[in-house]
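Lab meeting prep.
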Amino acid sequence: MEGGPEREPRPPTAALEDPTQFPDSVWQAAGGARDLLTAFAELLIREGQLRGLLGPRELPRLWSRHIVNSMAITGFVPASTDVADIGSGAGFPGLVLAMTRPDVSVTLIDSMERRTAWLSDVAEELELRNVEVVTARAEALHGRRSFRVVTARAVASLDRLGGWALPLVTPGGHLVALKGGRASEELEAARSALRRSGGSHGTVVEVPSPLDGSVTRVVLVEKRAPGPRRSR
C-alpha cells in the first residue's frame, strides 16, 4: 500500500528576517562567511522544522536569535586552535563558529543521531573542511578527547554543564558558554560545582550584537592545571 503524503512543515508565523538589509557590522563580525551563513540559513529554513531542529516560531528570528547570537563566542576562541561544541543540535554555536573561523578545528558533539546526521549533511553541503561530527554524550569522551575550548549553548545549567564540559578542556583552556539574562546568578550558584570539575571561578562577559546592539552573555570558565598531589 502506498504511504501517505509527506508532511509539509507549517509556514513561519511571521515574516523571515532579510539578511540583505542587515548593517555592515554583521558581515564585518562574520569575516568572510557571509555566503556560508546565508546558505546555512537557507538550509535551516527549508529543512530545520521538517527535521525537528527548530520550531516554526524560531524561523522568523533565525538570524538574530540563533546565527548572530552564536557569533558572540568568536572573539573568545584563540587562533588556530581546536574546539568542541557539545549538544550541537542544529549547529549553534558550533557550525556558525566553523564558518566564521576557518582557522579553528571544530568537533560537533551530540548524542542524537538525527541531529548529527543533519550536522554532517550541512558540513558536506557547505564543504566545511574544519568540522568533525561525533555521535556521543560528552561524558563518553572524558579521558579520550581534549580541546583547548569547549562551547555550549542552551544545553544545561552551568553546574551540570561544567561536569560534562570541563573534563574535555585542556589545562589553561576554557569553557565558553552562551547564557541568558540570568547568567551571573547561574554562575554564582554553580561556583562550587565548577571548582569540583576543575574550573576557575568564571566570569560573565556581555557582548553587544552587531545586528541590533542587544546583549549576549558569554560565560568563561578556565580549566585549572591539576595541583600537586599531597603526600601521605
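Slide two material, second protein:
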Amino acid sequence: MGEQDVGAVLREAIGVVLRLGGPPLLAALAVGLVMSLVQAVTQINEQTLAFVPKVVAVIAATVLLGPFMFNTLADFARLLLDRLVALGAQ
C-alpha cells in the first residue's frame, strides 16, 4: 500500500465523517438558530428551552437518515476490507 493509497483512504474517511456527522449537526444548527431568534423576540432566556429541541432534532435526523448513514458506513467498511484483502494477497 503506497502513500497514494493511504491518502485516498484518508480522504474517503473524511468524506464519510462529513456525511455521517453533517446532517445531525446541521439539524442542531438550524433548530438552535430558530430557538435563539424565538428567545430574542420573546426575551425568555431559559437554557433548557434551546437544549431540548436541539436534542429532539438530532434524534429525528439520526432516525430519518439512519439507513443512509448505515449504508455509507457499510460501504466504507467494505472498501477498507477489500483493500485489506488485496494487500494480503500481494
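Talking points for slide two:
Residues 3-89 form one domain.
The chain has a mean pLDDT of 89.
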